[in-house]
Amino acid sequence: MESPQTNAPTPARAPWIAFALVVATALALTLLFRATGPSDDDFIVQRYARNLLDGRGLVFDDGARVEGFTCPLWLFVLAGVMAVGGVAAAVGPWIGAAAVLASALIALARAPFAGRAPAVAAAFAIAASAALAHHAALGLGTTLAGFLVLAWYVATERAERVGGSHVLAGVFLGLATLLRPETAGFALPWLVLLPRERRLGALVAFAAWSGGWLVFRLAYYGEWLPMTYYAKKLPLANLDLSKVGAGKTKALLLRPESKLPSDACLGCRTCTFVCPTCQ
Q1: Are residues 139 and 37 in contact, defined by beta-carbon separation less than 8 angstroms?
Q2: What's the predicted TM-score (pTM) here?
């Protein structure tokens, strides 16, 4: 008597089914959130990229060397898109989505080391994350930074497992700092915990990127930190909030003085480009 057949996937087919479902999930979230971006900050980076390609340098306004961005690697990515005739506002979100998918696939590929169930769960958690899909659409390379941090972790784990060099891990983490500066916070504990004989190579690989940009910043902009840091440190201790808040903001906006600018507003976000961050 033949045993009844089941619809359960065979062990050989299961990884491919998981792969297809992860890709489909990431694509669905990308399509769902793609209209929510790019963000106003991403348009600022795009203007820097356009000025760079036009020969004006890494500036927002001609002749004013002000670093109004914190993601130079993303700026160069967008400049590359523009250089080949692409529209950065259209292509950027897809690059961010590709970084999310790549992160999910890295998690899925960890099955031989972490176990199939945890790897699949991690991959789906990344692919189905609304927060990551939204940040992919917003731009600024945030999801690409997440991918690089994950790649840094995997490269570190592999180097420890096989007794190899940590140079590649240092490269990944150094590149991540050119997208999200706060990722540099991983560097010190990581380097301290590395075996002494492998520490120098990892440090050089990391510093070549993060330190290299710092040297450029000092030479080109004459500052240790980007302008965004100083803008966000403006003194707000004595800011008077008595005229805004519950029951007041609407009345303020409905005053006759507010009628003309509000009626003329096109929602073009140009006002974003005159904020203290970039001027």
Answers
A1: yes
A2: 0.79
